[in-house]
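SEQUENCE, STRUCTURE TOKENS:
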Amino acid sequence: MTDFDVAILGGGLAGLTAGLYATREGLNVTLFDQMGPGGQLNNVGQIDNFPGFPNGTTGTELASSTAEQALNAGLQFQFGEVSRLTTSENVWSVQTMMETVTSKTVIVALGSTFAKLNVPGEDKFFGKGISNCATCDGDFFRDEDVAIIGAGDSALDEALHLTDIVRSITVINKNEDFTGTFVNRDKLLSFDKVTVEHNAVVQALHGDDQLKSITVIVDGNEKKLDVTGAFVFVGLVPNSNILEGLLDIDAAGHVECNIDMSTAQPGLYVAGDIRQYSSRQLVSVAGDGATAAISARDYLRK
């Protein structure tokens, strides 16, 4: 006898969507997340490319409405970080600091965390000028000079949020051009307060108690940027450690899975940023969650 039919690890959009679909199938479903419903989605500002919102929405609004929908359907939410996942005789054990529960199937949708620059000063000034969330921390830098490190969609979205807050923005891009969408790029470059350093690599971050400057190499030449804030968006690292020893994980930390989100372990599914070849877009992440839930349902019916 198991405690649940489906245990979901991760409360972001993939996990919440999986929970919504699985509970609507009449399954007994629980979801674990240490941050609360929505996970890092709560830190996302304006979202303009999620279908069904012609005027856009925010991460907080999308997280809240999806969580409410899933909870109303019967999803059971549990605060806590899962520390261990094991299996024996087709039963999965999910261990947290408080308890261990059993489930017939598990959907791992733990998402990813922000990659680090791994340069001197980064750890020292994190929370003291360095941040991964302009939506959360932007107002601390009102009328100040800041840098955005990165040039993908996350970096551009956060930079756009800052345009109404800070005095100036310097985008530090290690490549020759932006990797984010043309729409966001053109919108950002329309602001006079925005400058871009292409082919620029951060070497170190400096200051006393707070960040004061950044050293970069631009086209082979060293340059100092006087900024009091730096928002770092240089990639994502999948939160796949809990699956080590259970599944094959590639060098980048992504998990191998099939098109239906099933894995080499019977009853174990993955969804979202954690899986190989994920586009890391919210709409596809939600689709992964729905697919994983349907696959788990089919497995339980066998």
